[in-house]
Design brief:
By secondary structure, the protein is an alpha/beta fold. The chain folds into 2 domains: 213 residues, 2-enoyl-CoA Hydratase, Chain A, domain 1; 47 residues, Orthogonal Bundle (Lyase 2-enoyl-coa Hydratase, Chain  A, domain 2). The protein is 47% helix and 14% strand. The protein has 11 helices and 9 strands. Helix 1 crosses helix 3 and helix 9 runs antiparallel to helix 10.
Amino acid sequence: MELKTPESFKTIDYAVTDGIARITLNRPAELNTMNGDFWPEMVQVFRAIEHDMNVRCVIIASTGKHFTAGLDLKWAGQNALASSGNADLGRQREAFRRHVKELQDSFNVIDNCRVPVIAVCQGGCIGGGVDLVTACDLRIATADAYFTIQEINVAIVADVGTLQRIPFLLPQGLVRELAYTGRKFPAAEAAKWGFVNRVEDSHEAALAAADAMAAEICAKSPLAITGIKQVLNYGRDHSVADGLEYVAVWNAGMLQGDDMKQAVAAQMARQSATFQNLKP
């Protein structure tokens, strides 16, 4: 994987302001489809975030009419042909498995990010876009937004995160309907089921709502925020008893800092506390 700096990214723009990292998909003419540059750039931008303790929240937004039309099928087809080579079928399929695992990593880094990630979706969020936003902590949509598990419409089993994460966000019957039919899941319906946190009339209003939510998160203790995310993620794959043990051990180790004292003192004085960044 070619290492890049944020300044050399081709498919995303990246900036950090007031503790908020903003990742913006920047290929509107191509409907922000996910080509060969996109996948490693997502890994690398989240690597930069992990090392920047100024970042306390991330917003992933997009440009143009649609959030993303998902996988760049032309790139995917060319990549599949190039990777087939002259190896025997078993080796070809093993190489393809590793390719899929690399694509999965591009969204695993979102799920595993130490800070909350907010997705802002306008227009279509299709195929790989659903994989992306289900890896985020929070979702804000425009009134015209819709979500489509597109893979069934091209005879593919979605394989980079949707089928693994969306069952934690929606009821099983609805998940299976969306996955089996590939129908549009409009913002109003998504809000009814809690898939999106809020719906705004315009893209500008949705971005403003994300900024306000991110600013509120940034004002909290970063140690407590990362702890909440760790504990919630841990709970998806473990029993209630395991989760209770994990949070007990987490707090036993992490409550030794000054944040709780500062937060309680600020509450009593009816003031806002200021918390230090985490240690690099």
